[in-house]
Amino acid sequence: MDFDLIIIGAGPAGLSLARALRGSGLRIGLIEQHTRDALQQPAFDGREIALTQHSAELLRQLGIWPLLEEAHIAPLRDALVLDGGAGPGQQRMRISHQLSPKTELGFLVANHHIRRAAFEAALAPEDASGRPPELRCDEQVTQIHTDASGAHLTLASGQRLSAQLVVAADSRHSSTRRAMGIPADMHDYGRTMLVCNMTHEQPHHETAWEWFDHGQTLALLPMNPDPVSGLPRSSVVLTLPSQELQPLMDLPEDAFNAAMAQRFGHQLGAMRLSSTRHAYPLVGVWARRLVAQRFAVVGDAAVGMHPVTAHGFNLGLRSIDSLSKALIQAHQKGQDIASPVLLQRYQRTHQGASRGLYMATHALATLYTREETPARLLRQAMVGLGERFTPFKRAVAASLTGLH
Q1: Which label site among 5, 121, 237, 288 has the fewest CB atoms less than 10 Å from its CB?
Q2: How far is CA 375 from CA 126, 240, 360, in A?
């Protein structure tokens, strides 16, 4: 075998897995279609990742957290759920950090900072944590097949590689998962998400907003103050039917600023763009199986979450933690790291941890994108009852922190 393990995809999930396995004695190959420069210095992509307390602890264990730099980590102390238009009839539910044992529910870190830190941790020169994986950039897998003896890959360059086990971490639209015959349920929500950073006059009080307004969904993710102006700054997320979003993307900056302030009901005062704008279609993905012969999927390739509950990368880290521990234990005992028993155990563990959250998120996203009167009334009732029912809010706080 060329490797014990080949990881396809050097995004945050693939890099975190590679880092988790450093020092295990396993020979690891890492295949990525982008250039090394793009991995070392990833470009801003608009996405802020909400990390639970549990995920922050996993990143500390992996040595990734210290590399993020304090200036790029924003505390998320409280969460605010709003339903309906701005005004007297608006329903509000506040989830306070005081309902949890921590001083904050979680943290917000830009996706490109996580990618950069994960690359640095996974690919650092050999040290006490072991040898780095062998990285093959500018490469794509064109063929994959497995048999009882191993997994066999052909790259676009024509090179052929073999390993005991292949792990796909190549996005929710994983071509490797499809090539291995693993079906996935995909739900296109018919919505597109616009993300950008904006400064605003009114403080955010380190509180995340999830606002289900009529015809649109708004989110506000509190960031550290703008380093130039010192103004409050947030990651702003607007979800609209896909055909309605492009005109906003095309607006001149001043018109865009005014339009966003209006969409937020001027509750934040004047708003000003402080980054580039990015748009992402919303598609949820549930892989029906997570394993095949000498093959497994992690991260979004396993479960691609709708972002409304902010658990996508958090679930990805759980899959990496579960699989890496199983692989290290098997290798230390001299066992086959791709045995059916090991892979099935990983599948049961991660699907058990993610199924309920995926289904609940899907139901919530579906309910809050419907505009019929019964759906609106149900949403208002849910938010109003939730605000008055402390045990429910405590359960939500536990979910947001990951400490449950």
Answers
A1: 288
A2: 56, 17, 16
Q: For 175-198, what is each residue's pLDDT tens digit?
A: 999 999 999 999 998 899 999 999
What backbone phi and psi angles, to 5 degrees, belong to 338?
-115, 25
CA–CA distances in Å: residue 212 to residues 50, 149, 237, 299: 19, 52, 12, 27
Q: How many CB atoms lie within 10 A of CB 150?
A: 18
Helices (H), 34-149: 36-40, 53-61, 111-123
Q: How far apart are CA 208 and CA 95, in angstroms?
A: 10
- Is residue 129 within 8 A of residue 23, CB to CB? The reply is yes
Closest alpha carbon to 17 in 25, 7, 27: 7
Residue range 15-43, pLDDT digits in tens:
999 999 999 999 999 999 999 999 999 99
Residue type, 206: E
Instruction: Decide if 308 contacts 368 (C-beta within 8 A).
Output: yes
Calpha distance 360→252 (Å, rounded): 38
DSSP state of 306: -
* CB neighbourhood size of 277 (10 A): 18
Q: Which helix (H) or strand (E) is 200 found in, with range?
A: strand 184-200
CA angle 130, 134, 138 (to 5 degrees): 150
Residues of the chain with pLDDT under 70: 89, 368-373, 375-377, 379-389, 392-393, 396-397, 403-404
Cβ pair 12, 298 in contact under 8 A: no
DSSP, res 229: T
DSSP secondary structure letters along 254-312: HHHHHHHHHHTTTTT-SEEE-S--EEEEEEEEEES-SEETTEEE-GGGTEE--GGG--H
Q: How far is C-alpha 295 from the geometric centre of its chain's CA atoms? A: 22
